[in-house]
Structures are given as C-alpha cells and as structure tokens.
Automatic annotation (TrEMBL):
This is glutamine synthetase. Its EC number is 6.3.1.2. Belongs to the glutamine synthetase family. SUPFAM superfamilies: Glutamine synthetase, N-terminal domain, Glutamine synthetase/guanido kinase. Gene3D superfamilies: Glutamine synthetase, N-terminal domain, Glutamine synthetase/guanido kinase, catalytic domain. Pfam families: Gln-synt_N (PF03951). The gene is LOC115744916. Residues 79-159 form the GS beta-grasp domain. Residues 163-426 form the GS catalytic domain. PANTHER family: GLUTAMINE SYNTHETASE, GLUTAMINE SYNTHETASE, CHLOROPLASTIC_MITOCHONDRIAL.
Amino acid sequence: MAQILAPTTQWQMRITKNSMTPSLVTTKTWSSLLLKQKKSGNTKSLSKFRVYALKSENNTINRLENLLNLDITPYTDKIIAEYIWIGGSGIDLRSKSRTIPRPVEHPSELPKWNYDGSSTGQAPGEDSEVILYPQAIFKDPFRGGNNILVICDTYTPAGEPIPTNKRARAAEIFSNQKVINEVPWYGIEQEYTLMQTNVQWPLGWPVGGYPGPQGPYYCGVGADKSFGRDISDAHYKACLYAGINISGTNGEVMPGQWEYQVGPSVGIEAGDHIWCSRYLLEGDWNGAGCHTNYSTKSMREEGGFEVIKKAILNLSLRHKEHISAYGEGNERRLTGKHETASITTFSWGVANRGCSIRVGRATEKQGKGYLEDRRPASNMDPYVVTSLLAETTILWEPTLEAEALAAQKLSLKLLVKKGQMHLSNW
C-alpha cells in the first residue's frame, strides 16, 4: 500500500482492525468519501492531514505516476529539451528544461539559453549571466517520446568560454588537422561505487564494518557477491536508449563497485557520451578509476607498436601535467598497490596492470593496437583527459635531448609487480 504522509495524524481513513489488508476504496466511491475529523483533533489545524493511496479494483491510484509516463507525442509537436551543463566544481552537473516547438535532429537547431552563474559558482552576482551552447543531443530515457537531453558548454555573453568550460579547449585540439587525420579512438572505463544513502557506507558492506576480502566480487554473480545489479542494468538500458555508445558493464573488485565502458568513440564525442552517461547515473565519482583506452590511426596500422612506444615516451615526459589534470583525490588511489602505479613515478608494461600505461598482449603480438592510460581518476573530466592524450601524443614534440634521456630511462627501468621483476618492454 503506497502512502503519502503529511505532518500529523489529524485525519485518517479507518481500516478493519483485524484484517490483514486494508478495506479497498474503489474509484467510484473515492470522490464521495468523507474524511472524518477525530473529536479530539484541533479544528484550527485543518491543513494537516494524512492521506492513504489505496488500491482500486483495477490498479493503484497514482495520478503522478500516470502523468510521468504520459506520452504527449499524439497530442503535440512540442518536445521537452533538458539542457545539461557542468557546474562550478568541474564535476557537478546542472540542468533545466525548455519547451521546443518541434523535434530536432541536430544541436544547431536548438536555441542558446542562459542561467544564473552566481548560483553555480561560475559568475559574480553583479554579472551573473552565463550562456549555454547546445553541443550534443541524446534521447531522453526518463521522459521518452521525442524528448531529448542536450549536452551544453558555457560562455560569457561576449562569446568567451568561461574557465570551467573544458569542452571548448578540447574542441580546439580535436579540430586540429593533424589530430583529425589520426582519427583518435577512445574507450573509457567508468568505475563508480554505490552508497547506502542513509548511512553513507558502500552497498553490500555491513554498516560500520568491512566485507570479506576481494576475490569473489569481480564479475561475481549471486546475491552475496553482486550488490546493486538492478541499478547497473537500469543504467545500461537507459544509456542504450539515449544513444550513448556504451559497450559493456561488469561488477568490480569491491562489493558495491561497478564499471561500465563507453566507446570506441572518436574525438570530442567521447567526452559528450561520458558526461551524458554520468547524468543518467548522477553521483560522486571519487575513489575509483576511469581507465582510458586510446589509439590513433597510425597505432592501429602496421608498425603501430613503434608509434605506441613513441607516444608512451611523450607521456612519460609530461607525467606531472597529466596527473595534475586527471582528477581529484588521485593521490589516495595511485599508491602502487591494488593494481595501481605510484602517482610520482611513470611506468609502462605489457599486460601489467600496476603500470601507468598498460599495453595488451594482443597489441604486442600483432605489432599494432592501442594503449591504456590507467592514471585517470573516476571523477576526471573526459574532455580534459581525451584532448590531453591527443595533444601529448600527436601535437606535442619534446626536445631531442629530453627524448633521448626519457628513452634511456624507460629502457632501463625495472618494473616490479607481485614479486616478479622484468625489464620494461622498450
């Protein structure tokens, strides 16, 4: 029996005392039903009451749910566009709705809009208007029909990107002809942890305690190992409906922790798809990773393994720049333990998940493929990470002296993992 509870028990509907279920009120009698006030009640507080929504003969009386599920398509050409943008913290999402006269197929058909940036930490109160530029469209799995989700970035009224607009800089990098020619592909592994909201403790963990050690939870099945699968599955379907390029999902090594993968995506669309997927599964991303798989056209062609090695060399020389841009709280994750590299030391290896950069066995064997950057935190900005990878490996050229020194260091570096020592595969 669904309930809507108001502050007091001043008013109530009587049910049979000894009945296991309340007496039902049919839709025919609902409108004529008189709610009687208790004799001891205070007649001055008529606004305080309790309402029970009981089952009718056919279905639950729930007008709100019926309206939420109402398909307006047969009655109007108008649609609802949910404008979504990134707030002042750089990881919080904001949104508001707008009626559009008819369905659209491209963001250029949508009007620009504005919002109060002083309320999102993105503008001063005396000059608070921020302009939203529609950039990507997805189908809305919540409202259905022709309604859409609109990923936007943010500008001043003069047309300048505001400081928290990382998409604009990424778009510049991805519009460079050298980058376009390399057709950069990304596959992003977004990890997240489900929390029990009432106690702020991970789902599946005993409150205030710890579960058994890791081992049975990764890709685990069963009620004692797979906690929150219904949420993961619901999100999976919502992403597919929206048109997000989600490619899979799995339970992670910690109880209550999940991962989904988005890609392969080309260029700027990788960031658009990740941000929209986060909107569908809004939460706090700290404490897990967001491994980013990356390749260029040259890496995917014959002789690509040598191109990958050159890219890794460049990445080693800009390790600090990447770490500083790869998300908050990474120092608590990149400890050198639990299949992570140390945050202070760059490393790479084949099939080694304890490195900064991992190369797969298949890539080594075939002599072409992709690399995996295991450094980004789960709260990273995908616009920043994807564009920085392209910039460092395609556009940035180190000095010959720095390149030679880095090559020497990497070729001599010993990688130690799980008690086994082997040379870096340079």
